[in-house]
Protein: RNA helicase
Organism: Homarus americanus
Amino acid sequence: MGDDWAKAAEEQEAKDLVDKVCNLKLPQTEEDGVSPEKQTAPNEVSPEESVTAADLSLMRKAMRKGIVECKNNVEVYRKDPKNPLFCVKTFEELNLRKELLEGIYDMGFKLPSKIQEISLPTLLADPPANMIAQSQSGTGKTAAFTLAMLSRIDSSKKCCQALCLSPTMELALQTLDCVKQMGKKCTDITIRSAVKGNSVPRGQKIMEHIVIGTPGKVVDWVTKYKCLDLRLCKVFVLDEADVMIATQGHQDQSVRIHKQLPEKCQMMLFSATYDDEVVNFAEAIITDPVVLRLRREEETLTNIRQMYVECRSQDEKYEAISNIYSIPVGSAMFFCHTKQNANWLATRLKEDGHQVALLTGDLTPDERVRVLLRFREGSERVLICTNVLARGIDVDTVNLVVNYDLPHVYGSGKADCETYLHRIGRTGRFGKTGNAINIVDGQDDLRLLREIEQHFNIKIVKLDYNNIDEIEKLGED
């Protein structure tokens, strides 16, 4: 009877915590990635792409070759301001086991990134400290919590001691690859995934030290099949928390998993953004955390030369693009307003013998990643895309952005100045000079261009696309 009462009480506590999170009224989107504000009237056809927050996160991770050099400082917030936070400048200062140190260097890390300098001493401290960290992709956060998980493992105990949740299978497998690489010389530590397609034989218990998976699969293994016991788990990592919040059902599942963890389990939450929704979600499940914030590098127009070419027909527009293609730049991105335009432009350029890549929302996540990797490695010099890539995808070799279609707010005919900033912000990154060329076709486009000039208080200069000498000068910087 006592056991039944205790079980009922535990289930009620879990339900109360789930209700607390659900009552936060966090914005949710279905798995297809179409948010309510993006829905259009029945008779309208929106040009916007249906790409989930998780898909965007996966694409950003795919484009990262190494650590992003961020000029902003890490902001630290903590409950006890008298408790000192330590900072390290080398990995040796962390007193790691030899095999882990070798794994770090084998992965190409030489010195800790900004977020690692402050987070690692806190994550590896004894007693363990809970942490909420906000930083953009590419700043070293995955390596930071991977190192923390590997460092906490007692290999003599055959049970799950570290659990990491990611919003999708693709993101979980990327994290799994990072953990395996860093821990490849720690042969006494075992690792496994908990994603779609993985199964556990009936009656068998999971004995691996580190489990990396998605909320749905982990919930099943913990509560339905009871093959994953979290009572001895030392570290819980909730990665991509902002993506979790944007995916319906993940909040509820994450809270239910959290309820199965021991009270002294170290909690870590990582997010690319830190708005009110993420703050409320984090505070509902993590007590007394140290909070680190590394602000994203702001996009700016100061080091981007902005030009436009004026065309009178679709043929002239294509002729301008063909001449622009000949600019001797590292890499270029051509933005179209709809996937139909992107498909047409890519097909036409390929027919004329040009090497171009195409990325739209019609591709699967795996296909998008393959396209991006080929572009990053230089297999194709030009990437034709829609607004899928307008935000947060950085390639350091991109020094030309072309707006084949000027961005406008759907249904209003007004210039979409925010999207314009994000589009041309794909060039001129990391302190380099960038070029942005806008293709203007008719009076409506000219009006949009003037709106953009007025909004940013800038002058966009006219470029003669038939003057090859003038065009070639753009590739000299």
